[in-house]
Amino acid sequence: MDNVVKLALSGRSNGSERASSIVRAVSEAKVDEDLVDFASVLFVHSFTHLFLNWISARYGYGKGDLGYHLEHDKIQPTGFQKEGLRAFVFEMAVGGLGYLKSFEQEFKNKGKDVLTEFLGSENQGVQKVLEFCEKRSERAIRNLPTELNSFRTHDKVVNDLINAILTAYTKSFDEAYVYPHVNSIRRAVIDAVTITPETRSLMDDLLGRGPHCWDGCQLCVMLERDCNYLPFDQPFLVTNRLTADIIKILKQMVDSPVQVFPLKIGVEKEFMRFVSAARHTIDLISPWLSPEIVKVLSEKAEENELNVRIITSRDTTNKVHEESLRLFRDISSRIKVRIAQLLHAKGMLVDDVMLLTGSFNFTISGLTSNVENLTVDFSLQGSQYFKKEFEALWTESQPLD
Predict the structure, then answer these.
(1) Nearest to residue 21, comparing CAs of 39, 35, 7, 42?
(2) Distance between CA 17 and CA 282 in Å, rounded?
(3) Which of 75, 170, 179, 368 has the fewest CB atoms within 10 Å distance of its CB?
(4) Could you state, in order of their start, the residue ranges of all structural domains in the chain?
């Protein structure tokens, strides 16, 4: 990150290729599997800290009473079974302290109410904390030129320092509210401009006018509570913005777990979103499929080591579907296919928790151009019912020859 700031201070005319590639990737909003893996760790780590903070406020536990442990396939030792990304919260006492037991009992009795209280809104709970920090940061970066210009004098050394700090905050990346960590700014500025004893003390005042909350700020996410990672690593292992955005989605899912979209054109976006989110299993049922959809499922199954089960028909009068049946015989062993009679149902269950159903077949026309009904269901009832019926039909169906 220091080199990114140095690149900005040089007018982007002289810098490392690594720094330039980082700037380009941020500008292009480039998303790949490595970034998704990294983001998932950031979110679950941040979410775990926020949960511990909330439990503390609710039940009054003391510092050191609770601990946590993160597991991720990418950081597991060789030979360990892959279990995805998980966070474990535990009490630091033999026999426990009762906080988690109290939470468990409350959650059983008032599940949705407890979740709603934890997730909160713009005016309360976790969302309020994250929103406050984000708005404060936006205000600080917006007002930074005015704040720093008030320190200008006839001394060129002072003005050069002000210009360098402004450039570091506003020119390192193209996005207005994306800026480097203050420590990287400090180090790069010291290397780029003349620093005198007077400007060294002034620099602290100038940097103090900038955004106090970086995306990885520990203050709003961790509230300075115990963390398993070293202090210098912590800013790069939590995230304010991503956590806030995902929590808003979770809140929407809790408030409205089932969303119905009648007469919708273009289901492909939801289909790809569900498939991309899959980490363990996909159960899909459809009378017809297109070869393009089969290839997508095959690629994702190999890429994420998914177990995919498909129930479909043996309708060879549909030439597109007939081609898909031929493909199934040659593709990944991770995809199991069975044939059912009198099949009309359509749906896809991802990881036993995300359900997509509707009037559409999993064909190119069904997902892209036809007018279809779509239901996105995150409810426990919906996923459990689909799973039960799918298992029964899977048992009755015949393997694809």
Answers:
(1) 7
(2) 40
(3) 75
(4) 2-30+131-208, 258-399
Q: Which residues of 128-150 are buried (b: 16+ CB within 10 A; e: fewer)?
A: ebbbebbeebeebbeebeeebee
Averages of pLDDT over each 10 residues, the chain, 401 residues: 81 71 76 80 88 83 80 69 78 82 86 82 75 81 91 91 91 81 87 88 89 69 70 79 86 86 88 91 96 93 91 90 89 88 93 94 90 91 95 94 76
**CATH class assigned to 258-399:** alpha beta
pTM attached to this predicted model = 0.69
Q: Is 89 exposed, middle or buried (0-12, 13-18, 19+ CB in 10 A)?
A: middle
385 vs 318: CA distance, rounded Å? 30
CA proximity to 164, closest of 191, 142, 132: 191
Tokens of 219: 């203050």
